[in-house]
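Summary of Year 1 activities. Much of the first year was spent building the evaluation harness for sequence design. The harness presents a backbone, in tokenized form, and records the residue chosen at every position. We chose the following record to illustrate the format because it has been used consistently in internal testing since the harness was completed.
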């Protein structure tokens, strides 16, 4: 008797007669963009919570506690309790603040303006060094 293996119908609505009572799900198929968006959103919220936990832990008790706080806050977003709700809310707030900051930066071209100003400072410093020999004079005085 030839029957279709259970894994052959994981993405179809029909299953083999031998496995009608089982629900076969392919955990590796990604046919729905909404699923990807939800995963990205959950990852963003967990990352935001980890950032907030890390900052608070570092400010209050130092870098080691900050690292532990970051990990704990990220993991708490997976919990289905009040602590998880708080962590997810904090993560969402951090993500929202980051998006607003990026929008503000894009609107006012902050990155481009900062790069331009930095390049001008470097060029002026190079010109001053060429004109006055600052680096050479500093090297001589250090010997």
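For this record, the design step produced the sequence shown next.
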């Amino acid at each position: 008797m030839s029957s279709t293996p259970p894994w052959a119908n994981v993405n179809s609505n029909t299953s083999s007669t031998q496995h009608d009572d089982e629900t076969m799900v392919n955990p590796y198929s990604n046919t729905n963009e909404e699923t990807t968006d939800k995963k990205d959103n959950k990852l963003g919220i967990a990352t935001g919570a980890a950032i907030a936990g890390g900052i608070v832990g570092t400010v209050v008790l130092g870098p080691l506690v900050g690292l532990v706080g970051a990990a704990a806050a990220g993991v708490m977003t997976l919990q289905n309790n009040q602590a998880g709700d708080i962590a997810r809310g904090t993560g969402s707030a951090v993500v929202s603040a980051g998006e607003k900051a990026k929008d503000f930066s894009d609107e006012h071209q902050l990155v481009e303006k900062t790069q331009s100003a930095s390049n001008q400072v470097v060029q002026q410093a190079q010109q001053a060094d060429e004109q006055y020999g600052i680096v050479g004079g500093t090297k001589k005085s250090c010997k």
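The CA atoms of residues 1 and 74 lie 51 Å apart. Quantitative recovery figures across the full test set are reported in Table 2.
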